[in-house]
Write a structure and sequence with these properties.
696 residues; mainly beta; 6-stranded mixed β-sheet; extended
């Protein structure tokens, strides 16, 4: 274990900087480290603008020292130390749940053998727990990314691995965007839908991968000229893959342009339209396309078909018409310097500088593009979340920001955003061009007047034949219990599904929550509860319940037909049962006695009713032989004296059975050797005795 010294400092961190509410605007946390002389604790406060009061939370007193590792974006991370150089195997992070109006303190156990240490880093979206390991001079980082869900009131997480060239204790994770890229699994990235709460592990193929806002593209394994394209659809809750493959790279702000690698004369221009929830494509076949460029919602390129004057081709995707609008115009002489400025296509030819622009009413013409501000809007009101999703489809500018009508404006120029509202009301959501101030707005109204309270379960495990009681406290409104199927919450229809107490009997692992609603209000949802299901032990049998075996031999027994999750084998040693180390459904038994298998199904069921009796049968005593001889061909008289029955064999084969009995008088014509075997059993098949001892 490498040891590093850390200075223990009491930190008080305040933050009043306002960031765009891309996901959720967390309340900033003010924190100090308190001490009672022998123990320390974290003392947290935040101002709850809904309650119009300051809320306080203190962690329990601990003998370990607290170190605040980060306090950013409404998330507080800390580590624990038993001394200045020894880290306690637990870290934590805190967030303020402004729907429940309480702090949430999450504790995470960490490995005790980490070479360098474990740190907690808080970013705008993710909380990262980073394990550092020394790997021959490189720093191996195993990172768990956590994200808190304000509507299900729980943390979701996944982990990735990264290799760092040097130690950075204050490591800033790459996951402070929508995506988290796994640097070791070169063809995989992680994305988490903030409302559906499904973590999507998406293959985009190999290390040359581009992520921007909601879209990603990367090339096929070992084929860097063959790209795949993806865009996230929040309604479908999935990454939608463009149906064509074998395409070259090209994309900007959600508009893709690519060529078919099997025929480079095939050109494709495509976009994902949230309004129709599908890809919309324009295409052209020409081997002479050059200078393709895309910017501000417009695509332009030169096309020089032999015998035909060179043309400038212009395309724009009209989000109101849900289609591509195409235009072309011949150039005069040699054309060059094809650019797009504020959605207006420009180029140089013999006439000098030329322009071609688009207007929503008049179409393409020799004028500047008229700015068209437009965005798609989806909401999650029906799912009980006052959250919206917006996607920019503006033409003529990329310098936009969102004004969500609640005093929050987006500060980073993103293509897509999620935004959460804290109060009921009517909001005018606008997309604004930061250069001109031109905007386009859509109203959004919702009313939160119910309180979902807190859901509880009588047990987190349902044993088959029993039920689990779900209950709701501190709620205000009409209850509807829901169960999660895939990424969707479905209303329960069984008796009691609208009562405060609801008994459930799932036949698999299931997740439940309560939806609470008052007339005229959007529903509010409680925290979710997971119930594990454990089946009763199926009818099974042990392969042998009575075994007779010779001394010093062994015998394997099996439990057959069981659905048990665990097996414990035991032997009766008189005063107690001795446990074997075997945990599978079979055991190799040697030695007489009473054996049994304990079958368990989690914590629900156990069965010890079947036992195995093993009787050891000792080998018979060694026989005493009486030989005979003859001077020529004649009959000889042989005999054996022992307990058991003698079996006589020719010496050439122990299976060439000749005679049974203690006396044997064969005719011999030459010197001959016989084999005699003594058994306390009977001959079970021709020439094969049972339970025998050889004597030559």
């Amino acid at each position: 274990m490498k040891k590093y010294c850390f200075i223990f400092t009491i930190l008080i961190i305040f933050s009043n900087q306002l960031f765009g509410q891309n996901y959720f605007q967390e309340y900033p946390i003010s924190v100090s480290i308190g001490s009672n002389g022998t123990q320390t604790r974290l003392q947290c406060t935040t101002y709850d603008s809904l309650l119009q009061t300051t809320v306080t939370y203190n962690t329990p007193w601990r003998s370990e020292s607290h170190v605040i590792s980060s306090n950013n974006f409404g998330k507080l991370g800390y580590t624990l130390w038993t001394s200045g150089v020894t880290q306690f195997p637990s870290v934590g992070f805190i967030i303020y749940d402004y729907n429940l109006h309480q702090f949430v303190d999450e504790q995470v156990q960490i490995p005790t053998g980490t070479d360098i240490g474990v740190n907690v880093v808080c970013g705008r979206i993710w909380v990262s727990v980073v394990e550092h390991h020394d790997n021959d001079g490189w720093i191996w980082a195993i990172v768990k990314y956590y994200r808190y869900d304000l509507y299900e009131h729980q943390w979701y997480w996944f982990f990735v691995e990264e290799l760092l060239p040097s130690l950075s204790w204050y490591y800033t994770p790459s996951g402070n965007t929508d995506f988290v890229y796994d640097a070791e699994l070169y063809n995989e990235f992680h994305f988490m839908d903030p409302i559906k709460n499904n973590v999507i592990n998406q293959n985009v193929n190999n290390s040359i991968t581009v992520f921007k806002d909601d879209y990603a593209y990367g090339y096929k394994d070992n084929k860097p000229d063959q790209y795949y394209y993806f865009t996230y659809d929040p309604v479908k809750a999935e990454y939608c893959k463009y149906p064509r493959e074998n395409l070259t790279k090209g994309a900007t702000r959600g508009i893709y342009y690519a060529k078919d690698t099997t025929d480079l004369s095939k050109h494709f221009f495509f976009i994902y339209d949230q309004g129709v929830q599908d890809w919309v494509t324009d295409s052209v076949y020409s081997p002479f396309i050059t200078s393709t460029t895309a910017k501000e919602g417009v695509v332009a390129y030169f096309d020089s078909i032999p015998g035909v004057a060179k043309k400038v081709h212009c395309l724009v995707y009209n989000p109101l018409l849900h289609q591509w609008v195409r235009d072309s115009i011949a150039v005069n002489g040699v054309a060059s310097v094809l650019t797009i400025e504020n959605g207006t296509v420009k180029w140089n030819d013999a006439n000098g500088t030329n322009i071609r622009g688009y207007d929503q009413v008049t179409g393409w013409g020799n004028y500047n593009t008229t700015l068209l501000m437009h965005f798609a809007l989806e909401d999650y009101i029906s799912e009980g979340a006052p959250v919206i999703f917006v996607r920019n489809y503006s033409i003529g500018t990329e310098n936009i920001y969102y004004d969500f009508g609640d005093g929050i404006q987006s500060m980073d120029n993103r293509h897509v955003l999620w935004h959460s509202y804290k109060n009921s009301g009517t909001y005018n959501i606008c997309i604004v061009d930061s250069a001109t101030g031109q905007n386009s707005c859509q109203p959004f109204t919702f009313n939160i007047c119910g309180n979902a309270g807190t859901a509880m379960a009588s047990d987190s495990i349902r044993c088959e034949g029993d039920s689990v009681e779900l209950s709701l406290s501190s709620f205000n409104g009409n209850i509807q219990w829901q169960r999660k199927y895939g990424n969707n919450w479905i209303d329960e229809i069984l008796p009691g599904a609208t009562a405060q107490q609801y008994f459930v009997s799932p036949d698999t692992i299931a997740e439940y929550r309560a939806k609470v609603q008052l007339p005229g209000c959007i529903p509010n949802v409680s925290n979710s509860l997971k119930v594990k299901f454990e089946k009763q032990l199926s009818s099974y049998f042990i392969s042998d319940s009575l075994i007779e075996q010779c001394t010093n031999n062994s015998y394997r027994v099996y439990v057959i037909g069981s659905n048990a999750s665990q097996y414990t084998w035991q032997k009766d040693v008189g005063t107690s049962w001795y446990n074997f180390s075997a945990t599978t459904n079979s055991l190799l038994i040697s030695g007489d006695g009473l054996y049994r298998a304990i079958l368990t199904s989690g914590v629900c069921f156990a069965d010890t009713t079947d036992t195995i009796t093993v009787n050891e049968i000792p080998f018979p005593a060694s026989p005493t032989t009486v030989p005979d001889f003859s001077c020529g061909p004649d009959t000889v008289n042989l005999s054996v004296s022992s307990v058991g029955v003698a079996h006589w064999f020719a010496s050439s084969s122990s299976t060439s059975f000749l005679h049974m009995g203690n006396s044997f008088s064969p005719f011999v014509s030459s010197t001959t050797t016989f084999i005699v075997k003594v058994s306390d059993g009977v001959v079970t098949e021709a020439g094969v005795p049972d339970k025998l001892l050889e004597q030559l």
